[in-house]
């Protein structure tokens, strides 16, 4: 695990500083892609026209943009749900706590791949961008997630549960209908 190398460089749960040997490998892989990137990290971008770096980015807004193709992240629970909601293929780089479990769960469901952050390659990134099976799997999960947690479904389940438990006025009980 990378606990000693990266975790001490964290700020409010987010990795902002990455050791040079890791960041140079990631930059090399990113530069080989034809897509432009947004990367939340405390680094000067080697090519600002290709890689936008910042210590803060609106993650959920970026994931919701129609042109977002791939979400490379540390595989925290919230990021995983945001990526699934917006149906963005994931590339997990876990290094502590529940991240390896979350990453393995995403791989098992076919939402993307995982890798050791010290060994990221452009081939792994290209595989995710070019293979539609990951996009199809996460799109299906996104549709199910949105349907399950839609306001109408939640309202119906809450109302029916309340009716069964007698939590409403007598005129609203199931026997009144």
Automatic annotation (TrEMBL):
Keyword Glycosyltransferase attributed: yes
Residue ranges of coiled coil: none
InterPro entries cross-referenced by the UniProt entry: UDP-glycosyltransferase, UDP_glucos_trans
Superkingdom of source: Eukaryota
Keywords tagged on the record: Glycosyltransferase, Transferase
UniProt family annotation: Belongs to the UDP-glycosyltransferase family.
Protein name in UniProt: UDP-glucuronosyltransferase 2C1-like
The species this protein was found in: Aplysia californica (California sea hare)
